[in-house]
Every structure is written in C-alpha cells, then in structure tokens.
Write a sequence for this structure.
C-alpha cells in the first residue's frame, strides 16, 4: 500500500505543479518592467517594479481596488497618475517594443491619457483615449477613439507618427490592451499593431526618414496622465492593472499567453523564476 501511495504521489504531483505554473506563467523574455499594483507591492505611494528597477511614484490619491488579477489602481480622472520614471535607456529601444495593461473604464465623453511621455521637444510617446489630436487646443472628442503616437529624432528636429482608431472598449468591462511597435531605423519603415483581448488589429505601416532614430526618454513616463509643455493634464478615469513593458515586439502567441494568465504571483527580478504563487481572485 505504501509503495502504491508513493507511486501515485510521484506520478501526479509533478503534473499538477506543472499545470499550475503553466496556467499562471507570463512571458518574461524581453520584459523590462512590471507593475502589478497589488497591495503588497505598493508601499508609501511607491508602486514596486517587481521585475526591473523602475519603481513608480503614485501622485494624487488613486485607490487600491480589486483588479483583473489581484489588485489594481482606480484613477478618478482628477489628479491621479503614476510617475514610472524615464525607464532608463528603454526609450532608445522603444522602436521595437511592447506595452501591455489591463484597463477598465466607462468614460466616453472626456479626453484622457492612458500613458505618455513628452520631452521638451522630443521624444514623444503615448496612448490617448476619446480624442484624435496631439494638441489639447485642437482636440476633437470621439468616444471610443484610441490614439497612438511616437516620435523619432532626425537632423531637422523631431518627427511624430500618429494613428487613431475606434475600438469601443469604454464599456465598464476589463480589457487586455497590448500595443506593439516594430520599426527598422535602417530601412525607414515599420508597423504598429494593437491587441484587444488577444484579437489583433493592424495600425498600418509607416515610413520615415532614413537616419531617424529613437533615443532615451528625457521626461518621466506617466501612467494615467499626460505631460505637455510641463503641464500635467488629461487624467485617466477608470482602473489599470498589470502594466508591463517589453523591449521587443511580442508575437500573437505570446500575447495570447499573457491574456490567459489570470493568476497573480510574485516574481524575482532579472529573469528569475517565480517562487510564490498567489490565490486566484474572483473577477
């Protein structure tokens, strides 16, 4: 009987463990920074970067609330945002990169910013909701519009590539948003794509002057607000959870894997495997 019990344990326990790990595993290849916004990773208005070295500074009074995975931050649309730092040299690698987050909002009437950075002149990078113009003084409100913009430096200054499309995700439900950039400065060509709940949408191909380049961000990346000319505005209203940056374009299969990863867990920085697995939270 003891031998039979030992055989059953050694046969099925590894299988069960592997299933749990696979179920909760996120892609870590190319992962630069990761903010879970779980309660245990927020101390004295500092949101811990559980993978990299870019701890975020929480401004205003966003609430820690039940999120899509673990906890999330709820922004009230008036003064709440997170300063994620300049992300080191990530800006120089942002031509081939991925931004990922879970978001939940029902705001269809106000222009607001999901994420943004803006140097005094260049670089410029971000994602805005409900509007399709870069300048606040020339803004057309379009409910459901998501507007993406990036900039490259060239000899004659800065060139900005922008594109907007309507996705109608302002419905009060959680949505997994992944923004992928894949540009070749050697060829002067590139493309952008967005995934909503793992469904892919092309944002089209772009061409730009050969010799243009990306370079490190000179001002902090703000989550939930826009910095334009030193003014912070365009505050996000809703919830944001599980924010990640990668220094490479994720594939459709990798986006799907992250979309299906619904179990919070603790990760050790710089490529180490997860050691503590959290309890699945009711959605």
């Amino acid at each position: 009987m003891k031998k039979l019990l030992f055989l059953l344990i050694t046969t099925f326990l590894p299988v069960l463990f592997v299933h749990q790990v696979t179920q909760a595993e996120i892609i870590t290849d190319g992962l630069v920074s990761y903010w879970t916004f779980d309660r245990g990773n927020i101390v004295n208005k500092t949101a811990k970067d559980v993978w990299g070295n870019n701890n975020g500074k929480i401004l205003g009074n966003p609430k820690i609330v039940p999120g899509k995975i673990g906890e999330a931050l709820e922004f009230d649309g008036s003064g709440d945002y997170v300063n994620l730092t300049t992300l080191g040299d990530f800006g120089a690698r942002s031509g081939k990169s991925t931004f990922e987050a879970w978001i939940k909002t029902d705001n269809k009437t106000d222009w607001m910013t999901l994420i943004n950075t803006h140097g005094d002149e260049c670089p410029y990078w971000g994602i805005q909701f409900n509007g399709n113009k870069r300048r606040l003084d020339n803004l057309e409100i379009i409910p459901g519009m998501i507007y993406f913009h990036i900039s490259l430096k060239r000899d004659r200054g800065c060139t900005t590539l922008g594109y907007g499309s309507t996705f109608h995700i302002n419905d009060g439900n959680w949505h997994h948003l992944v923004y992928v950039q894949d540009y070749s400065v050697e060829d002067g060509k590139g493309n952008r794509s967005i995934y909503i709940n793992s469904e892919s949408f092309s944002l089209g191909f772009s061409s730009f002057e050969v010799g243009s380049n990306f370079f490190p961000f000179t001002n902090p990346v703000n989550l939930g607000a826009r910095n334009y000319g030193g003014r912070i505005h365009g505050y996000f209203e809703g919830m944001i959870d599980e924010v990640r940056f990668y220094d490479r374009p994720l594939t459709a299969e990798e986006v799907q894997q992250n979309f299906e990863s619904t179990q919070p867990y603790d990760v050790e920085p710089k490529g180490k495997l997860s050691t503590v697995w959290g309890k699945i939270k009711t959605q």
User: Anything to note?
Assistant: The chain is about 10% helix and 45% strand. The two ends are 42 Å apart (CA to CA). The mean pLDDT is 82.
